Amino acid sequence: MNELHRSGISEFIGNIKNLQRSFLGSFLRGGKPTSDKSRAALMFNNFFLHVQGVKTHINTLRPTYTFGLGIISFFLLIIVVISGVMLMVYYNPSIERAYNTIKDINYVVFAGRLLRNVHKWAGEGMIIFVMLHMTRVFFTGSYGKGREFNWIIGIILLILTFGLNLSGYMLPWDQLAYWALVIVANIIQSPKEITDSLGITQYFDIGGFSKELFLGGYTAGQESLTRVYFLHVMFFPIFLFIFLGVHFWRIRKDGGLTRPENLEPVGKDTGYASRPEKTGGIFPTFKTYGLMELARGKTPAVDKDIENTVPSWPNLLLAEFAVFMLTLAVVVVYSFFIDAPLREPANSLIPENPAKAPWYFLGLQELLSYSAFMGGVGLPGVALLGLALIPYLDREEGNVGIWFSNKQGIIEAIKALIVGALVNVGILVFVVNFGWFRNWWPNIPQLLITMVNPGNIWVGFMIGWSLWVMRKGKASTRMGAIAMFTMFLVSFLIFTYMGTYLRGPNWDFFWSKSQWPIH
């Protein structure tokens, strides 16, 4: 009996000593990977890891190809979600308590200010990196050859990212939040500009109906804050993760990230991608192949070999872990020094002047100053439609995975950058100095201003320039697309800068904030 008792105690003590190994073994299932087969099994059998392939092409691991923009966007989303869930513990979505709970988070909750800053800046960082990621995908031609639908998914994710940030911007219920909510409500109401011009508002007021649906009434109040809170914590996150899952799934089904067709490894590839030694585990020093299945299909993975690939474990996972730690460190350090803004409590009787949307919507607000409908609905709709149609209008399949396709692409991008900047700034200078139709002819029909305004002229110029690029010399649809997309980025930056730094009270032009009138 004593021997049995001692053996049981000894076994229990041994189990405690082997606890770490047992836990890791249960997580890794097959134990520590020591061969290609065990590395592949680890990636394939793990719920969190199987979204990635068991092998990764060396081009994917090259820092200068993707710059990690997509994975940084995802890591920022994870930071936003975790910090947001923690903030939900303290936030109260009522117009009486919302502002005070934000102040409590800032001044009472332990590390609450840092937590709120991390949530704020990680969210806005998502906007920047999602747009940069989309820019990388476009300029490397990674939207074609079976990946057209995933490009559409990317556009949806961009819209949801903007919506997630904008809805969160309104939750503190301070002056910034309240008047941003009013601006968004007016954008939603902008179709009324058309129905008023046509004299059919009393019969078909889609703008007024949309605004009332969004606000939960005719003015911003408790119902508005409840709706915004629902959008921020339920609607946008749910659909964001659904479409993100589809996005990752399509990348897997399309054979991973794009890469040049005739890519060959170079010496520096060994610096960030190590090939396993085939001398351990079940593998001999040579590799054999067996036919497992014959399959037909049209995805980019068909008829492609797996040469120039390395096991995702540990190469890809180490790279992703390093990017995550760097992303988290930058967000935390930035949040430690830069606070998220918080103004006075919301007051509908004291309007902000100028009342501005968050910076990522100020380009849109600049367009709104020309025409409410075209700036709020028409031109953004045209831009999104144009982006969505790019992979279906540009059907060239060559030079996929190469930045700007070739030297001509670089030249066209530089020309579009210079010409686009000059024309865009020229239009703004003209408007600032001479005004537009309403300044010249006060009684001009609003419908004419809706149809002919600086924003429409700029979009027309972009389309015309793109068509001209496609017609000249040895140009192609790809070159025309590069020219238009470059001008789109230029206009986004210039309009955003204009609305952020050069617009003051009454949306007048000022070179600096020091020139604003004192009142």
- The first-level CATH class name of the largest domain: Mainly Alpha
Pick out the low-confidence regions: 278-286
Write down the overall mean pLDDT. 85
Strand order of the largest sheet: 1-2
Report the end-to-end length measured between terminal Cα atoms: 93 Å
Can you count the beta strands?
2
In short:
Helices cover 62% and strands 1% of the residues. With 519 residues, it is mainly α.
Characterization of the model:
Helix content is 62%, strand content 1%. A two-stranded antiparallel ribbon has the order 1-2. The protein is mainly alpha-helical and 519 residues long. The termini are far apart. It has helices at 2-17, 19-28, 36-45, 58-61, 63-66, 69-88, 98-107, 112-139, 148-169, 175-188, 192-198, 206-215, 222-253, 312-337, 362-368, 372-393, 407-434, 437-440, 446-451, 454-471, 477-501; strands at 55-57, 309-311. The protein folds into three domains: 1-50, no CATH class; 59-259 and 311-344, Cytochrome Bc1 Complex, Chain C (Up-down Bundle); 404-519, no CATH class. Helix 6 (69-88) packs across helix 14 (312-337), helix 7 packs across helix 8 (112-139) and helix 15 crosses helix 16 (372-393). Mean pLDDT is 85; it is low at 278-286. The chain contains 21 helices and two strands.
